[in-house]
């Protein structure tokens, strides 16, 4: 068992990010047994859930003529236009059935505002609208956070970068994550994680 100051944050292990899902990450489901057993080592376990309304601005389908995986400009900066995924209440938005959810004390839902995407578990993509996770962890005395889940180069990386910025000791266990790797996004995310002092483990 890790010290009570350590939390495990499980990012977006949802059907739509697993094989057969709307935004499937290769081998996304392969990490689940490892994540399930890691949960036994942590007194604090948080799950995140990507949770978008059908009219969400990150969906290519909501931009006339836009192809999935193309880029657009949002008021807060560049944004990938994704295939429609993790629509609120859909089976694609549900946690993968093999993922243990009982050990989690908190589920953070993110990306529910139509006009703004939210990769990070801490802040939406404007880097200023909070999800509340920072306050929750601090109130529980957490100082160190370990990230696992999907996808390494988007929601996991953004979460770990924000954690480091907020002063938490942050670790990403790459072996318990899988990446989308769109146009070099995995190499870019890895470089940013190193530069931010995030520990990369296996
Ligand atoms: C994610 C793209 C869009 C993720 C979520 O969980 O990494 N990626 N929404
Ligand atoms: Zn999303």
From TrEMBL:
Family recorded in the similarity comment: Belongs to the isochorismatase family.
Enzyme nomenclature, EC number: 3.5.1.19
Biological process per Gene Ontology, one example term: pyridine nucleotide biosynthetic process
Stored Pfam families: Isochorismatase
Domain Isochorismatase-like: 7-190
SUPFAM superfamilies with a match to the protein in the record: Isochorismatase-like hydrolases
GO function term, MF aspect, one: metal ion binding
Pathway annotation from the record: Cofactor biosynthesis; nicotinate biosynthesis; nicotinate from nicotinamide: step 1/1
Keyword field: Hydrolase, Metal-binding, Pyridine nucleotide biosynthesis
NCBIfam families, alphabetized: PRK11609.1
Protein name, entry field: Nicotinamidase
UniProt enzyme class: hydrolase
Biological source species: Paragemmobacter straminiformis
Domain of life: Bacteria
């Amino acid at each position: 068992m890790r010290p009570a100051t350590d939390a495990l944050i499980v990012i977006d292990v949802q059907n739509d990010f697993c094989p057969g899902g709307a935004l499937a990450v290769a081998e996304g489901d392969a990490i689940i047994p490892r994540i399930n057993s890691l949960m036994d080592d942590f007194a604090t376990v948080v799950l995140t859930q990507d949770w978008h309304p059908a009219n969400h601005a990150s969906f290519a389908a909501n931009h006339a003529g836009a192809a999935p995986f193309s880029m657009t400009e949002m008021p807060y900066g560049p944004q990938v236009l994704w295939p429609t995924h993790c629509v609120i209440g859909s089976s694609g938005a549900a946690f993968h059935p093999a993922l243990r959810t009982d050990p989690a004390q908190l589920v953070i839902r993110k990306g529910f505002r139509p006009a703004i995407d939210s990769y990070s578990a801490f802040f939406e993509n404007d880097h200023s609208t909070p999800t509340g996770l920072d306050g929750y962890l601090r109130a529980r005395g957490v100082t160190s956070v370990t990230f696992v889940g999907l996808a390494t180069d988007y929601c996991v990386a953004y979460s770990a970068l924000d954690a480091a910025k907020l002063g938490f000791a942050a670790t990403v266990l790459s072996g318990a994550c899988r990446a989308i790797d769109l146009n070099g996004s995995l190499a870019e995310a890895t470089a940013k994680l190193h530069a931010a002092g995030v520990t990369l483990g296996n």
